[in-house]
Amino acid sequence: MNADIRPLPTGLSAQGRRIFRLYSLYRLLIGLVLVLLISSELDDRLLDLARPDLFRNASWFYLILNALIAALVPRPRSMVQVFSLAVVDVLLLSCLFFAAGGTPSGIANLIVVSVAISNILLRGRIGLLVAAVAAIGLIYLTFYLSISQPEAASQFVQAGGFGTLCFAAALFIQGLSRRLQLSETLAEQRAEDVASLEALNAQILERMRTGILVLDPQNLVLLANNGAQTLLGKDNLSGRTLSSQCPELLESLQLWLANPTLRPQSLQAFADGPTLQPSFVHLQRGGQQNTLIFLEDISQIAQQAQQLKLASLGRLTAGIAHEIRNPLGAISHAAQLLQESDELQSPDRRLAQIIQDHSRRMNLVIENVLQLSRRRQSEPQLLDLKYWLTRFTSEFRTSSSPNQTVHLSTLGSTLQTRMDPHQLTQVLTNLVQNGLRYSSKKNTQGQVWLKLFRDPESDLPVLEVEDDGEGIPPEQVHNIFEPFFTTESKGTGLGLYISRELCESNQARLDYKPREHGGSCFRITFAHPRKLS
Question: Which residues cross the membrane (predicted)?
Fold first, then answer.
């Protein structure tokens, strides 16, 4: 029995406290009714009282005691308190049962109700003990009443029935309470699982790299995860219209709404931003049809596709280079011999020169593609960029023509990074030569400015290569780093692509931005010196 009378460290549950408050209110109501009954002197008329004085005193005592219990014990802290209050209630009602004349008074029904309510709060044998106290009290008091009132001997069957009813009510209520408790426990567990799953989904949604947007019919953003805000370059999208945040995405959505069978075109939300592939889904929410938008960053996929394409092209070129180079060398050599002939006329000599020029260009394309397929792994070294750039500029000036100038300016103290010096030389030579070539087309003196400084936001070394040429048209900016894209008739279109690949292999980044006063600016953002250590 001690196992059933263990104290509860936190008292009753919230539902148990509510039931106990209703139980207290019920006892107060019974006590009030009894007091009103004796105060109006209707007790003698309605009840065949065996002990009138005892009934009146017990009624007042029942009301006052329950009022004190309700005031002093609003929240019992252990099952012992609940059990004690239930036993006291049964004993007081049994006393009223005896004073009122036994089973004809109807107070036995109140005892059964009290037993039933107490068994909602109590469990197991301790609840049955309350029922046993009530049954013993009913039978014993009926027997004691029959001594002074022989006509009460006929109440034994009814008293026994009420005693049995007390046990039946206790067992039934305990079984029902046990089922309800299991259902409540299961419901709470399911609620916790749902809450945990919802929190997990919210966490997954926030950490997803895929951007997710939910729009209402007026294209107002109802939900935007961190991935969407990062891909679109916005800090807070919720509560704002899509037209004000990303008109390109709204245009793609309108085209999809007009024809859902069409695959939406990829887009770029901001300059130097990732290439995004949107997809749209109708989302029914109540009577409102919203739109669910998925944003996938396909920049890496496109880059990997280009790398696979170039790798395949490099392997193919490497396989047929020998067969192409031999006849190409023969053609170039034959054109050179033909050009040296004294009998060759001037128009034919010009045709021989064209053959030589295009042979050299074809050979250059083969060399560049072979360089992609045979590119060695980078071997980063700790470089002092100020010292390295000073030496590079000095060596470049010695080999450049008089009408070409390279300026160098450095800001800040020591700027270090880890990069393969040979690959950095290849990248910077390509950028400087391109800048001088485009600058010479516009000006009599070709000029390039090298500016080395530390980025105030990222604290990383940055090198900018600027020229005062015509610059790159805005519609071609997105294509300049693609392989084989060129604006010159003699270019191969691989220089900038190789330069960016070499930078990325050293965890640096090569970007383009237009120069404020005309011309081009290529920016190299180097890695932290401890990044590749």
Answer: 20-38, 58-75, 82-100, 129-147, 153-173
Q: Taking 80 as the threshold, does the pLDDT of residue 218 lie above it?
A: yes
Closest CA to 365 of 238, 237, 271, 486: 486
Contact 409, 450 (CB under 8 A): yes
- 79-99 vs 52-72: helix axis angle to the nearest 10? 160
Task: Give the span between the Cα atoms of 221 and 435, in whole angstroms.
Answer: 44
Residue-wise pLDDT for 430-488, tens only, equals: 899 989 988 888 888 899 999 999 988 878 899 999 998 888 888 888 888 887 777 77
Alpha helices in 374-482 (DSSP H): 385-399, 421-442
Question: E strands, 121-274, where?
Answer: 211-215, 221-224, 267-268
- Of the ranges 293-302, 364-373, 498-507, which one carries the lowest mean pLDDT score? 364-373
Q: What count of Cα atoms within 13 Å lies in the side-chain half-sphere of residue 217?
A: 6
Element (H, E) at 220: none
Is the sign of the CA dihedral 178, 183, 187, 192 positive or negative? positive
Beta bridge partners of 417: 383
User: In one letter, which amino acid is 459?
Assistant: D
Phi, psi of 91 (to 5 degrees): -65, -40
- Backbone phi, then psi, for 210, in 5-degree steps? -70, 130
For residue 423, the one-letter residue type is Q
Pairing of strands 446-454, 404-410: parallel
Rounded distance, CA 354 to CA 362, Å? Answer: 12
